[in-house]
Specification:
By secondary structure, the protein is mainly alpha-helical. The chain contains 6 helices and 2 strands.
Length: 118
């Protein structure tokens, strides 16, 4: 029974609710790049390090672009390598685009798309 609850919490992204506390205390934003797994932000080089200027967020452009990341990684032979060579660099690119073009209207759009996804 309990694992079944976890499946639904994850499916509906309700497992993200505790992060609202981080937003309330100012450690996170509603919109921005997802917090990285330890070790990834340390590998950012050159102009990619500008991402560190952004407060991590619950949702954002890269989060929406890779909404099905778990499914993608489940379908490749080496998920870690695929993440390192394909997904992570693309997320960096998408998040840098967000950094350059962020606006309140885009943030509202990302929040809307997160709540009412297709």
């Amino acid at each position: 029974m309990l694992p079944l609850i976890g499946v639904y919490l994850r499916r509906w992204k309700l497992d993200e609710l505790p992060q609202f506390w981080n937003v309330l205390v100012g450690e996170m934003s509603l919109v921005g790049p997802r917090p990285d797994v330890p070790g990834y932000a340390d590998k950012l080089e050159g102009s990619d390090r500008r991402l560190l200027l952004l407060r991590p967020g619950i949702t954002g452009s890269a989060t929406l672009a890779y909404r099905n990341e778990e499914e993608i990684l489940a379908n490749v032979s080496d998920p870690v390598e695929y993440n390192n060579k394909v997904l992570y660099p693309d997320k960096v690119r998408i998040n840098l685009e967000y950094l350059e073009t962020c606006s309140l209207s885009k943030d509202v759009y990302y929040i809307w798309k997160t709540i009412f996804h297709d």
